[in-house]
Amino acid sequence: QVQLVESGGELVQAGESLKLSCRVSGTIFNINDMGWYREAPGKSRELVAGITKDGRTNYEGFARGRFTISRDNAKNMVYLQMTDLKPEDTANYLCNANVETNGPRRHWWGQGTQVTVSS
What we know:
This protein has no helices and eleven strands.
């Protein structure tokens, strides 16, 4: 079994920065791609940023230039540094990881951490 636990979400003012963290634990043989998604009320879940095991990154348009995804493979952690936050960034931010365990490789999700940006 694999668990993903996000942290770091809080209420901030527009223009401020925030760093989210996600820790992967459990029976882990290998972690491949990792990513951050977000889900706002009334909207579907959307990709924010992704990162491969060797550090190649990709960003959705709204995140490019403001958000930075990184990971620490030794600690099974992935991070999302967010700057110049806007009210439209308000959402529940979820971590995703493609994990090899003692079963079939699959994607795992965390419960999310709430980010609220006030204007």
